[in-house]
Amino acid sequence: MSEPSNISTQTGLDVQDVVKRAIELNDYSYLLEKVPYSQFIGMSVARFGDEMVFKLPAKDDNIGNPILPAIHGGVLAGFMEMSAIVQLMVFMQAKKVPKIVDFSIDYLRAGLHQDTFAECKITRQGRRVANVSMNCWQTNRKQLIATARAHFLLD
Question: Distance (Å, rounded) from C-alpha 34 to C-alpha 58?
Fold first, then answer.
């Protein structure tokens, strides 16, 4: 996965300015377009009040098993990790990109070649560390295809 922390070095923009502008415009594509990996997988996000829903569109380049066809597990994990990072950046109005400390994913069923969605919940945020849980589904929120937990170092 491309290092999201390279936002400022790749674009010459300050991370805090990028986050602030995305929040002001209520257009998080502005933030996602600064991260090459999110562009590569086609990721998008919509915000509904305090809830953000991330979308991974059905895309041939994201397929890992062409026989099913199913989304590559690494793409799914990267999508969920990037979702957690963006959620933290937006709700913390981050000055820097949170650094991943630990990431654990449970694959529950095959992610078929169709639109996939994720939501994140910040379960604990301290001064230095944040814990985030993520759920990922396709056609029904109650039929999860993966769940994940991550710990991030906040600067």
Answer: 21
Model confidence at 11: pLDDT above 80: no
| DSSP, res 52 | E
**CA atoms of 60 and 83, how far apart (whole Å):** 21
The DSSP code for 139 is S
> Smallest Cα–Cα separation from 88: which of 117, 25, 39, 130?
130
| Rounded CA separation 118/126 (Å) | 23
35 alpha-carbon distance from chain centroid: 11
What stretches of 15-141 adopt beta strand conformation (E)? 44-48, 51-56, 63-65, 70-71, 99-107, 116-125, 129-137
Domains, the chain, ordered by start:
4-153 (3.10.129.10)
What single-letter DSSP state applies at residue 112?
B
Mean pLDDT of 31-43: 92
